[in-house]
Write a structure and sequence with these properties.
345 residues; alpha/beta; five-stranded parallel β-sheet
Length: 345
């Protein structure tokens, strides 16, 4: 993941243009693993019992995880000593394949995410407080929106809540900074995706000095307590920062100017943030150091290669849902299936 960490081999240095040999060739090991995962996934629906179906789903997820030489949850988790400047945006830590391999992986992984999402939703309907909050952060043009579209491509809209946070409104500024966040939290059995989040209310005043330093620094403890309370109440939290290089951001900005259908994505304020790049990186570094906790760690995901960052988020999401160890709810005690069949004729 880091420059100079002794692991920057061909696995970490792909052809980010998507046109080189790495993107065109299929990694034989990954191809084998994905074929095994496909075969296992095909057995799930034909399973005769709930226990067998869940076991096959778990096995297929384990096979999908085997495409990684080291799980992203380990390789990309922030820990003290890691500096954001050492994360190479064009690296692909733990993944030896290219674009085609990643797309195959994402397609299979998203089908299993959809399966676990339905399981989570069903449990929520029956009273479980399990739910999931995904926090996506990154500089402009880091690919936050694309991740949502690709990772949840097979998901059910019923059970997924997406919300993008912008500059606080006048009403929102009249309340505590967490007020608007609390209104968008996932309901029981739901997944909520935040495109930007409460962390903007620390980073922005840090960079621009819009609040007294004592005020925004005091928010670190408030955020940590907020997230601890959520986790204790059954809400899993995935916090992901997409690390994009300045060169890749420039490429995307120019692409927006060259495509009339993307004009709406560009704003002159994007250039102001780019000019303050180092200030932003310093502010985010402090965020990671202050708020990456055991219950809600940060993951720093290289994002120059969109196919890689999407594959990473898909892996983190699927394994998080799998590790909830849910089962399908049974019939309510007052339901007699034989009587229901009789009544239905």
């Amino acid at each position: 993941m880091a420059k100079g960490d002794g692991k920057s081999d061909k696995t970490d240095k792909p052809d980010k243009s998507g046109k080189g040999a790495k993107s065109e060739k299929t990694d034989k090991r990954i191809d084998k693993v994905l074929r095994l995962a496909t075969n296992r996934i095909e057995t799930i629906e034909s399973s005769t019992t709930v226990a067998e179906r869940l076991a096959n789903a778990a096995k297929s997820s384990e096979l999908l995880s085997a495409v990684w030489s080291l799980p992203p949850a380990q390789r990309l988790m922030f820990h003290h000593g890691v500096h954001i400047d050492d994360v190479a945006g064009d690296s692909t830590p733990g993944f030896s394949g290219g674009r085609d391999d990643a797309e195959r992986f994402i397609t299979l992984s998203s089908s299993e995410i959809a399966r676990y999402q339905r399981l989570l939703y069903a449990n929520g309907v029956k009273g479980s407080r399990r739910r999931l909050l995904i926090v996506l952060q990154g500089m402009d043009a880091s690919g936050k929106g694309g991740i949502v579209r690709h990772v949840f491509r097979q998901g059910d809209p019923m059970g997924i809540h997406y919300h993008g946070f912008g500059k606080p409104t006048d009403e929102e500024t009249r309340h505590g900074f967490l007020w608007r966040v609390e209104r968008e939290l996932p309901k029981n059995g739901w997944i909520a995706v935040f495109d930007r989040s409460h962390y903007e209310d620390i980073v922005m005043p840090h960079v621009y000095g819009t609040y007294p330093e004592a005020e925004w620094r005091g928010r670190y403890d408030l955020v940590n307590e907020f997230e601890r309370s959520l986790a204790a109440d059954g809400c899993a939290i995935l916090k992901i920062f997409l690390v994009v290089s300045q060169e890749e951001q420039k490429r995307h900005f120019l692409g927006r100017l060259n495509d009339p259908t993307k004009y709406w994505k560009f704003d002159m304020s994007d250039l102001d943030a780019r000019e303050r790049w180092d200030d932003y990186m310093g502010a985010w570094q402090e965020v990671f150091e202050k708020t990456s906790t055991q219950t809600a760690p940060w993951y720093l995901v290289p994002a120059d290669n969109r196919w890689y960052s999407r594959a990473v988020v898909s892996e983190l999401l699927r394994t998080t849902l799998k590790n909830m160890n849910m089962t399908w709810p049974g019939l309510d005690p007052d339901v007699d299936p034989d009587e229901v069949r009789r009544l239905l004729g």
